[in-house]
Specification:
Number of strands: 8
CATH topology of the largest domain: N-(1-d-carboxylethyl)-l-norvaline Dehydrogenase, domain 2
Distance between the termini: 40 Å
Strand order of the largest sheet: 3-2-1-4-5-6-7-8
Number of domains: 2
Number of helices: 17
Order of helices and strands: EHEHHEEHEHEEHEHHHHHHHHHHH
Helix content: 40-55%
Bound molecules: nicotinamide-adenine-dinucleotide
Shape: globular
CATH architecture of the largest domain: Orthogonal Bundle
Structural class: alpha/beta
């Protein structure tokens, strides 16, 4: 596969083009907004110049990348591509329309991939004449730096396609995992409680943002606390992902967004990018001090962690991915210090179940229902995910 097409030259498309060109492919990048396309071109040049200036890459390397990426304003240029990765606006109708158009341009064996975060690959493929050639290749932001890619076959994808794409993206230096076409795939599903349970703890006035952030870093070894991370991702983006996953699960209470998230979104407290989120990022604003109480910190950390483990166990139970891929995805896609199922083994599967059962009986809410897999393992005396 010599030529790879990238459609959409925004945040993700630009990064993906860089990955593809660095791996030695010829990349063609298209955007239906000419000014965005021009900007992507000049941004890439500026970025590479800066890296050369800092001595991080050689001038020949930069020239090579620039030679390998061609910016085009015509879809018909995509005719010789062996693979096209779409990274346009997250809208099903728009993506379907593009995929239909592409099929009229490309050869019969060109693979059509989508970088969608939240739409079903099967529904994107449903408009295609050859849905078997459609697959999800979900990169993480920033694509050149984040190693994980989730490979998502749709219901009609050719059965050899996932392993073909795994081999290809592995050759690009990425860490590919295979996920079933289900809401949020692996990472955006399993990570929900990191944010949701942290907000819930705050809403119960159990602890403030900075104490919860401190607890997760101090006792969980996470690089960032949930509120810091939400402020970095953007509370608009995070709220939209939460809402989409919840809706796609037919309003399962386990994924229900919180009023706090909605409030911040409506107040335009998007986080770092807007200067205000859970924290205030104004120049002379004082950051709140956490209450560094060991017992409180450990309780907070365990409650969020056990909810994450419960979600990972459920994803495994419902065949979203293998246990190895679930653990790898959380470590390489969102920098968790350890795989969640590995963590469950260390904490004790029975201890995880007992905590979930205690939360479930305390709150009487479906949000806290223990995963069937944890129950099954304890009932059958299976002590570990990894024996
Ligand atoms: N931003 C992230 O963190 C992230 C991470 C993983 C996946 N994604 C997914 O990647 C995709 C792109 O996200 P993004 O953040 O790069 O968005 P973006 O807004 O930065 O870029 C999207 C680009 O697509 C272009 N576009 C829109 N409609 C088009 C069309 N019909 N034909 C050609 N170009 C069109 C726009 O002009 C824009 O430049 C989405 O599906 C998103 O869910 C985003």
């Amino acid at each position: 596969m010599e030529i790879v097409g990238v459609i959409g030259s925004g945040t993700m498309g630009s990064g993906i083009a860089q990955v593809v060109a660095t791996a030695g492919h010829q990349a063609i990048v298209y955007d239906n907004n000419l000014s965005v396309l021009e900007k992507a071109k000049s941004n890439l040049k500026a970025l590479l110049d800066k890296l050369v200036e800092k001595g991080k890459i050689k001038p020949e390397y930069s020239e090579n990348i620039l030679r390998k990426i061609v910016f085009s304003s015509q879809l018909s240029d995509f005719n010789p591509c062996g693979l096209i990765i779409e990274a346009i606006v997250e809208n099903l109708d728009v993506k379907q329309k593009l995929f239909s158009e592409l099929e009229k341009i490309v050869s019969g064996n060109c693979i059509l991939a989508s970088n969608t975060s939240s739409l079903s690959i099967s529904s994107i493929a449903s408009v295609c004449m050859k849905p078997e050639r459609v697959i999800g290749i979900h990169f993480f932001n920033p694509a050149p730096l984040m190693p994980l890619v989730e490979i998502v076959p749709g219901i009609s994808s050719d059965k050899n396609l996932p392993s073909e794409i795994k081999l290809l993206t592995g050759g690009w230096g990425k860490i590919p995992v295979i996920a079933r076409d289900t809401p949020g795939f692996i990472v955006n599903r399993v990570a929900r409680p990191f944010y949701g349970e942290a907000i819930r703890i705050y809403e119960e006035a159990f602890a403030d943002f900075s104490t919860i952030d401190w607890a997760m870093k101090e006792f969980g070894g996470f690089k960032m606390g949930p509120f810091e991370l939400m402020d970095l991702i953007g509370n608009d983006v995070n709220y939209a992902t939460t809402e989409t996953v919840w809706k796609q699960f037919f309003n399962d209470p386990r994924y229900k967004p919180s009023l706090t998230q909605k409030l911040l979104f409506e107040a335009k407290h998007f986080g770092k990018k807007s200067g205000r989120g859970y924290y205030n990022y104004a120049l002379n604003a004082v950051m709140p001090e956490p209450k560094k109480d060991k017992e409180l910190g450990e309780t907070i950390c365990w409650r969020i962690l056990v909810m994450l483990i419960n979600e990972a166990a459920d994803a495994l139970y419902y065949g979203v991915a293998s246990k190895e891929d679930i653990d790898l995805a959380m470590m390489k896609g969102v920098n968790y210090p350890k795989g969640l199922l590995q963590w469950a083994d260390e904490k004790g599967v029975e201890h995880c179940l007992q905590t979930m059962e205690r939360l479930y009986s305390q709150y009487c809410e479906d949000r806290y229902r223990p995963s069937v897999l944890l129950k099954k393992m304890v009932k059958e005396g299976k002590k570990k995910f990894y024996e």
